[in-house]
Amino acid sequence: xxxxxxxxxxxxxxxxxxxxxxxxxxxxxxxxxxxxxxxxxxxxxxxxxxxxxxxxxxxxxxxxxxxxxxxxxxxxxxxxxxxxxxxxxxxxxxxxxxxxxxxxxxxxxxxxxxxxxxxxxxxxxxxxxxxxxxxxxxxxxxxxxxxxxxxxxxxxxxxxxxxxxxxxxxxxxxxxxxxxxxxxxxxxxxxxxxxxxxxxxxxxx
Length: 205
Hints:
It holds the Pfam family TetR_C_11. This is TetR/AcrR family transcriptional regulator. It comes from Pseudonocardia ailaonensis. Keywords: DNA-binding, Transcription, Transcription regulation. By secondary structure, the chain is an all-alpha fold. The protein has 2 domains: about 20-65, Orthogonal Bundle (Arc Repressor Mutant, subunit A); about 75-195, Tetracycline Repressor, domain 2. About 65% of the residues lie in helices and about 0% in strands. The longest helix is centred in the middle third of the chain and has 29 residues, at about 120-145. The chain is elongated, with a radius of gyration of 21 Å. Mean pLDDT is about 85; it is low at about 1-15.
């Protein structure tokens, strides 16, 4: 008997069901928006999604991981703009904080409020939600430094915290996302001056 072809795929267990995963995420969003984190259990999420707790835990090991995944699913994808212009890149980058509907804002505000009292949730939220936009902004600024648009001595560590801090504060205290007009003003009147922006010429030495 000839040996099995090396190209043949070995069984890998039950295939993932995107529709079920979406149902679980939708149920998580709905229950947390209506009841809050403390009032929502994995059992209730599973029941509303039409599945069992085991199916939830196969995909997300903890309630915290599930909630963070639900928040991320409602957010715009973090990208690193590369238009060849710092100002254009910053305006593209800041749209991450102005996107999302009211339900997304309520869910993220709930998560941020709970994170102040829950170390595990705080770290998970920082890793999945807080750090990716900051890393993208650092990449944008790094390219601008290489092009000579930004003074290498500019306070980058401070700059990367400005818009996320304002956006998250507005979510927690007002339950709404950063509006596009305010976001654009922050880019032009705060970030660019703070970075000592010099479009089209090398920074002063």
